[in-house]
Amino acid sequence: MAILQLALKSLWNRRFTAGLTLLSITLSVALLLGVERLRNESRSSFANTISGTDLIVGARSGSIQLLLYSVFRIGNPTNNIDWQSYQAIIKHPNVKWSIPITLGDSHHGFRVMGTTPDYFKYYRYSRKRPLQFQNGKPFTDVYDAVLGAEVAEQLGYQLDQKIVIAHGAGKVSLIKHDNKPFTVVGILNKTGTPVDRAVHVDLRGIEAIHIDWQGGSPTPGMRITADKAKQLDLNPKTITAAMLGLSSRISTFKVRHYINNYREEPLQAILPGVALQELWDMMAVAEKALLAISLFVVLVGLTGMVTAILTSLNERRREMAILRSVGARPAHILLLISGEAIGLCLLGILLGIGLLYSLLFIGQPLIESHYGLFINIDWPSTYEFGLLGILLLASLLVSLIPGIRAYRYSLADGMTIRL
Amino acid sequence: MSDHVIAIEQLRFNWPGESSPILDIPSFNINKGERIFLKGASGSGKSTLLSLLGGVLTPQQGDVYLLGRPLHDLRAAERDRFRADHIGFIFQMFNLIPYLSVLENVILPLYFSPLRHARVIKNTTAEVEAMRLLAHLDLSGALLQRSVTELSVGQQQRVAAARALIGQPEIIIADEPTSSLDADRREAFIKLLIKECDEAGNTLLFVSHDASLERYFDHCINLDSLNHSAQVVS
Ligand SMILES: Nc1ncnc2c1ncn2[C@@H]1O[C@H](COP(=O)(O)OP(=O)(O)OP(=O)(O)O)[C@@H](O)[C@H]1O
Ligand SMILES: [Mg+2]
């Protein structure tokens, strides 16, 4: 008890350096926990890129590949789904709703996705959040387009803007569907998912712009105007992929089995959650590196503290000799010095947690509006408590270094006052 | 032997790494209530002897008895406790802990010695007793509020004396407490210290190489006359 009081008073006496040490520990702890939070939030936000969809259907390939092009719009499908197969699948009694999608074209580097108005009705992201319109409404006409938030923001588009779709997915495309411009009728709210970077149009629109095309280029000598195209049969022949909502979770495997064994063409159905997890695991190295870096920052913080205490030890040998002369044991000296370090660490950890939470409370609305990333403010998870436990243990061990050193000094010096 | 507050027999002490012992004392006794002046040249081993008496060092050979208790029979923690309970130390300088107030410095030994603490609070509180001792040593009023680092050296030494005296330990050991004081202050300090020891009945072992201080003490002992090592060397 007496030693604790002494440790506190001595700390207070060196409050400036102790304050700096405390600051570095506080910051490093806040950084560590913050990185951990961000890691978790981005993982869960990643896992929530798509939600509410029970199955994603595509031509048979790898499940990650299907996930990449259907949800993240990265890469291209090797094969399409026949429209007839799609019709057959959605007639399965357990399919409650479906969203067909077709990819292939782009607009200034943003992927254009053909779909149906059901997309705006059924698509869910994050924790079952529906898409919301910042402006306008879903498309109804063949040449209507709905922009993701980032598309509108980066290109500075407003409602009623006319846009031309380019053939292919590249940023620079030589061939443009410039005879059939689209009109922006809606702009979506930010979601923090790939939806923000997509231009959504009706499947019929995709069909219309390719109606006078053959293979990958316009059919020479054949030009069908936009208005004329509307009169033609614009039912798609193929689609890229489809998202399915099922009547019950339990039927997932039944429907999946049905699709995977579909006779007419090789198809596959994936569970988006599982595929997302697989994909995330592939990227886990980067997040681990981030965690490792923040662990090192903590280590630097602790080392700084030990250095500060060790340098003060020489000046404090006198104090230790006095304490020994009034009856302090070498163990008391160890406690005095280590106690100080442990106290600093404890306080640093508490302040670090406090700092993190205040930043979270201040930053939450900002991060959500800027990045569409919704950060949950929860109590620390068991994992984070574990991390804090390790931190505490590490600081305990580290605190022993100056303590043991002081112990040795005091054994060697006894009551002799050395300068 | 039981009358001796301090008794040393056949003591030999060697600093680690030294070829010959710095101390080789066949016998040395101090009776209760005595005021002893121990003198010796610088480096003759006076402070070393005091560390042995305090139980901070242990001799390679021989016995040290304090108040009839053989120090060599005690474990290290018990020796520390024994020192806290029965000995008050005053050193040459830098006696005070800079981040404690004057009063806190005086009370410090009571934290380590429940015995002395109990003795003090039987009649009064620790603070009141500390102020009483300080007042006896001519320290009072605004001085007590000052940071100890702002006190003059003489004032610091008196605070150290109050700390050694609080809780009435049987033995007061002073290791050149006056060597950083000027002649007038030195005399005043010694007189105050002796007066306090007389009132409380402590035994005082006062160490110095300054022979001019002998006259204040009952007995003057030259360490070299006790110490066979010194006689061999010189
Ligand atoms: N911790 C130590 N380790 C090794 N040798 C030591 C240690 N402390 C003191 N000595 C040696 O022991 C001898 C006696 O030292 P000591 O401090 O006891 O002398 P002293 O009589 O108190 O001198 P002074 O009057 O200058 O205080 C010296 O030669 C010193 O070098
Ligand atoms: Mg000395």
Quick summary:
Chain A is an alpha+beta fold and 419 residues long. Chain A has helices at residues 2-13, 15-47, 63-70, 83-90, 118-122, 149-155, 203-209, 226-231, 252-260, 272-282, 284-325, 330-371, 382-413; strands at 55-59, 81-82, 95-107, 110-115, 124-125, 129-130, 133-136, 144-147, 162-163, 182-188, 198-202, 213-214, 217-218, 238-239, 241-246, 267-270. In chain A, α1 (2-13) crosses α12, α2 runs antiparallel to α11 (284-325) and α11 packs parallel to α13.
Q: Would you mind describing this structure in some detail?
A:
The complex is a heterodimer of chains A (419) and B (234). Chain A is of the alpha+beta class. Chain A has 2 domains: 2-46 and 284-415, no CATH class; 55-270, no CATH class. Chain A has 13 helices and 16 strands. Chain A starts with a helix and ends in a 6-residue tail after the last helix. Chain B is an alpha/beta fold and 234 residues long. Chain B is built from 9 helices and 9 strands. Chain B has helices at 46-54, 76-86, 102-112, 114-123, 126-136, 153-165, 183-200, 223-226, 228-233, and strands at 4-13, 23-31, 35-39, 61-66, 69-70, 87-90, 171-175, 203-208, 219-222. In chain B, the strands form 2 sheets. Chain B has a 5-stranded parallel beta sheet with strand order 6-7-8-3-9, with helices on both faces. A 4-stranded antiparallel beta sheet of chain B has the order 2-1-4-5. Magnesium ion is lined by residues 46-47, 175 of chain B. The site of magnesium ion has 3 residues of chain B, from helix 1.
